[in-house]
Structure formats: structure tokens, C-alpha cells
Amino acid sequence: MSSPPTTESELPFDAPGAGKPCKTWYKIVGTLSPSSPAPLITLHGGPGSGHDYLEALIDLTESRGIPLILYDQIGCGRSTRLREKAGDESFWTFDLFIKQLDELVDHLQLRESGFHVLGQSWGGMLGSAYAARGPRGLRRLVLSGAPASMPLYKRACKLRLAELPEEVGRVLRECDAKGDHESAEFRGAAAVFMKRFVCRLDPLPEPIMRTFTNIRDDSTAYATMQGHSEFDTVGSLKDWEGWKDAHKIQAETLLLNGRYDEVMDFVVEPFFRTINKVKWVTLENSSHTAMWEDRERFMQLVGDFLLY
């Protein structure tokens, strides 16, 4: 099978309050044409993880002919970095990221032909907030490992921490309490958490390694919105309750999470309860990155959902 055509480009992004010109970097895998299926726009996690780990979704282009649109959200990857905005909660907002997504949709002229959105983790939170605004052209929505409530997510992380070996949990709690997120001791213990509840594959896929590198390289958005660790949200997202607007989502929606996910079932359930047209599948062989851990099943579920 020949590889689908791939194009990369940039477009200007007028980021409110940025104080400098910004750009959005994006990649199209496949061909956008009237004869092709509606394209899938992907929203990566983090904030600040970059598009890299979502490259697994190229499977959908190769096997099902679905054009794929990958892009780096503002503040990470090959889009404009804004380290000077560290800690500025008035800048790093849902409105900022939704504006960037809307400008990409308009630039690619997808309003009339239609498009789908897949958001993973933070990208799923963003996708739910975007869909709740009723954007013209949005057909279907996939939310993978997406918390419906950050207070519930924080509770789930405490439960997951309790599942770790006692010494690992102690190190994470003590280091977190004293603000130590850089020591070898903390990083080693955090790696155990990630191995259990974020990606259980060994070795880690190279695109996931790149994702971790992206956040370490520029943690501006992540530190401001999430905090300094995966398992304790202390940033501006800490009180977010996205399910409260989910009744406004009109697009048919597929919810996915993993049996070992840090986004446990009770963190997803409010979306299932409030979204109008919704299906929910928990993948038994996965944690947080099901598109890698249970790849064939994930692609089957998403491909069938987008093409039926």
C-alpha cells in the first residue's frame, strides 16, 4: 500500500494579547476533495504535548481513506511559542484555543463540506467546549481519554496513586508537596505512574517519547493550565466542569477511555449522561493512549463511527 500524500504548511494566527505575530503549523495527510470522506481534525493533549503522538491516526487515512489534519496548538511544537506568557491565566484560555481551531477550519474551507473532530485528553476537553458552541460544519466528535470534570479527574488520580507501590506513591506525594518536580527521584516515580496509567507499552512508541519531550522543552501552557505534574491539577483548569455545557453538543459523539486510564470511568460518565447523541466504549487493553495500546480496536471503532 502506498503512503497517502502529506502536505505541511502554516497560517497566521492573530492570538489576542500575544503581543507579537503568531502562526499555526499544520499537516494534512491524504487529500481534501469533494470526493473524499470528511476530514478528521485532531486536538492533542497537554496542553502543550504537540501533535506527534496522534500520528498513529494516519492508520485511518491508510485503511479507511479519511483525510487527517494534525496541528500544533499555540505555544508548542512548530506553532508559535510564548514562554513569556508563563503563568498568565488570562491568556491561556479555551477561547484562545477555540479561536485557533476556528481559523484553521476557515483557512481550509471546511464549513460547507463538513469535518470531524477527535480530541484526546486535554484535546478532548477542548473538543467538547468547541462542539458545545455549535460550530458550523462539525459533523461528528470523538473524545478519547477526555475528563468531563477536572475535580473528578483529580479524585481519579488520587485513586490511581493509591494503586502504585507504597514507596513510589510516597515519593510522588512528598516531592509534589515541596514543589520538587525536577529531581531524579521525582522523575523516576512519575515514570512509574505514566507506565501504569498513561502508556503501558514497553518500549514507548517514538512519537509518544517526542510528546513527553515537547512538554519538557516548553511547559508554559501545561504549567499554567494543568500544573507541574500529571496527577495533581493546580492550574487554571482545576475547577473546569465541561459536562455542564455538554447538553449543547449536537454532533454525534463517541467517548473512549481505557480500563487502566487515569481518566477513569466516573470521570467520563458525566459526558455520557449529558451529551444528546452519544456512544461510550472502554477499551480493555488500554490506559490513556488507546490509539497506541489497543491500536487496531481503536481505529476500528473510530473509523466505523466516522463513516457509518
Number of helices: 11
**Rg, please?**
18 Å
Remind me, CATH topology?
Rossmann fold
Q: Which runs of at least 5 residues are low in confidence (pLDDT < 50)?
A: none
State the separation between the terminal residues, measured CA to CA.
24 Å
| Mean pLDDT, all residues | 95
Largest sheet: 8 strands, mixed
Q: State the order of secondary-structure elements, H for helix, E for strand.
A: EEEHEHEHEHHHHHEHEHH
Spatial order of strands in the largest sheet: 1-2-4-3-5-6-7-8
CATH structural architecture = 3-Layer(aba) Sandwich
Tell me the structural class: alpha/beta
Shape: globular
Strand-residue fraction?
A: 15-25%
What number of structural domains do the residues give? 1
Name of the CATH class: Alpha Beta
- Supply the CATH superfamily name: Alpha/Beta hydrolase fold, catalytic domain
